Amino acid sequence: MKKWFFMLTMLVFIVIVGQQLQKDQPQRELDRYHSEERYADEESIVTIEIDPEQVYKGKLLLINGDYQLHDAGIADDLVMIDREYALKAGYALEGEELTLSQHVLDAYDMMVKAAQDDHLQNFLLTSGFRSLEQQKQLYEQTGSDYALPAGFSEHNSGLALDISSLTSKMETAPEGKWLQEYGPQYGFILRYPEHKRHITKIAYEPWHFRYVGLPHSMIMKDRDLVLEEYIEYLAERQELSVKLMGISYKVSYYSYQPLISISLDQHSQYDISGDNRGGIIVTSWTEES
Ligand SMILES: [Zn+2]
């Protein structure tokens, strides 16, 4: 009888404990949820899933003799512009039409407007996006001293532009000087400066500008870094913060990993770019209120 009573008590005990454990489970979930909610008021941790292809996509891709552009790196917002469009936007076009990334075109148009306010009106856009086929033909026609093989030119991505002046050579044209000085405010950098030839392995090209976007263009100008050096600098520092024109930026560098956790405050936005050599760069920004 005692044994029977003991077993019944144990059974009741097990059932009660079991129910209690089941009840505890959702309670703990709820606690976690509440603590995250509280945290989100100031800053929240966002975990982003990163596609392996992302390494080869984005505005910070390093494209040079060592790092070939992947198909994934060709801008997915290519648009064609014609002479009429260019004329309305305030510049001339060499040839009948030209293709560019829409993002890059918007930044370029804005930059030309600002230059016009400084009384510069002789911009001539000579080259934008080149397909791999066009690059191949150019390379065959002009040779390795004047063109890069298909896939190794920034023009194949849609992120680079050749800009000339209608009145003089870019080395001496006021348009060239203005672009070098103020282009970074619009996300553009002179890609192959004379004094960095030993790093870029490309001769001075006063007409070739590359879009990298803000704040990267301003940091590169401020610290006198070409893209090769800037990517290396980010990989070493891993994180940097800058304030520009009322916006706080944070730039973080990661070796590729499928999940990246970043901390954002309520009003932050972010974008992601690969560096074409195994790294992922997350840029987040918040407008100061
Ligand atoms: Zn070029």
TrEMBL record:
Pfam families per record: VanY (PF02557)
Keyword flag Protease: yes
GO MF entry, a single one: carboxypeptidase activity
Name the UniProt record assigns to this protein: D-alanyl-D-alanine carboxypeptidase family protein
Keywords in alphabetical order: Carboxypeptidase, Hydrolase, Protease
InterPro entries in the cross-refs: DD-CPase-like, VanY-like_core_dom, VanY/YodJ_core_dom, Zn_M74/Hedgehog-like
Domain (D-alanyl-D-alanine carboxypeptidase-like core) ranges: 99-213
Native organism taxonomy: Bacteria, Bacillati, Bacillota, Bacilli, Bacillales
Organism for this UniProt entry: Paenibacillus septentrionalis
